């Protein structure tokens, strides 16, 4: 009996399933922990319908993600089996350097799935025909998408290629007679064409640098379809004869030459991957969500104004000034005053940044072509849409088709303008912990950021990266506060125009649904640690050491916190990773540079 395996929670599996559908067009279906399909017709029920997929996982929260192989997903998978003494790893080790596989999944049994593009018109399933322990998942098969459940994956789906020619020769040689493949490779081979067919396959495989043994295995498999079969000694002779010749050098189209790079040539620092490190990666879709009046627009405006002027933002580095195009679909009057207040608070700038504004709402899906044309004249690095609702166009945010259309427009802008897009969006009415609307939006996002007022009631604002593809998430929110300021502008009644500027805060904040608010003593202790850390110098690890006794002295004498409460606060703060305890009597606080 197979042991049951514990996998990652359903949220991770559902997120991966939606990502496969939205970004790669790969259909999915749910499977039981024993890998058997949960649907009535198995892999034939695999779907691109995100609403249906989400319902599957709501009804089956422990379901594995199944993916059909073959032309339905355009995937061909070589399954390397090692369980129960299977010898697949031997074949994998011997051929690893010439498999040229762009994506490899580790399986729960310790084997591997090698993913390739499915050649036309298709390859069928087979078991241990290529080699012992090496199965083929093609037409009529499926695989469990193990990366959705915490297992390693190497390579990108964008890098999938057809199988190398020598492997394709093996695959076609073991095809069943009913398989539909090029020429007569899947049908019976009659007398008079047997030698020609076998020699042709041997030559193809030799040109792909297959060994004599590999050619002979393939020819013997093909010989089984010959009517009548040739003697095995004659088949072995064909393999031996063809293998005597050195493979011809590969030819390339005129004007294209392949060249191997030296270590010095290849190991060069890659181009900068962030516009704002830890917040906005290059060429990404960033969703900033939160409830109304929660500080989203103020925070994003402050963030992007800093980026446009090459200023680091509350510890997050901006390597150089970037170009920002801000699409203001609502509240344009207030936005003017907001930017005026920011500029007056930063009067020592060397120059005004490259920051452009489009002050009108429109349907992005319906006007994506003219939006791209307008943006390409400016070539922005970051585009902000404030808000999603102002640029969504007709339709329903909760409907898969309408949200898919909007996200498709976002990707078109991102890819053609070669920029990142920050979308400001609201939370749902009943759930303040996630963005409103169809899960398609979340599946399309590279970064999800929650911005909201402190759940503890301080009035401060929390900013937290809660989900990211290739970037560290934030364990605790960044604490900010909105400070009201008067500008030099005077309204028609003779009063100064007022707005808010965003400032950092030492007081800890808590976002709804993320973690419990700190107690009053914990808040005081953390605030004092941060204050004292600002007076020190960080070590090589970026940490500042603070004496607990110094914190306790201020907390008890000036803040009225009992020594027992201070003592209890240390472990709680360390447990939530606000700081690190170092014995004796010292704490370490990470400081952003």
What amount of the residues lies in strands? 15-25%
Strand segment count: 25
Which class best fits the helix and strand makeup? alpha+beta
Count of individual domains: 4
Highest-level CATH class of the largest domain = Alpha Beta
What value does the average pLDDT take? 85
* N/C terminus separation: 55 Å
Largest sheet: 9 strands, mixed
- In CATH terms, what is the fold-level topology of the largest domain? Rossmann fold
Determine Rg (CA atoms, Å): 30 Å
- Unreliable spans are 1-10, 176-186, 248-254
Cα shape: elongated
Would you summarize the structure shown here?
The protein has 593 residues and is of the alpha+beta class. The longest helix is centred in the last third of the chain and has 18 residues, at 400-417.
Ordered list of secondary-structure elements with their pairings:
Elements: H1 10-24, E1 29-31, H2 50-59, E2 64-68, E3 75-80, H3 88-95, E4 103-106, E5 112-117, E6 126-131, E7 134-137, E8 142-144, E9 153-154, H4 165-173, E10 189-190, H5 194-207, H6 212-223, E11 226-227, H7 232-243, H8 263-266, E12 274-276, E13 280-281, E14 285-290, H9 296-308, E15 324-328, H10 332-345, E16 355-358, H11 368-376, E17 382-386, H12 388-391, H13 400-417, E18 420-426, H14 439-444, E19 447-453, E20 461-468, E21 478-490, E22 496-504, H15 520-533, E23 543-547, H16 548-558, H17 563-575, E24 580-582, E25 586-590
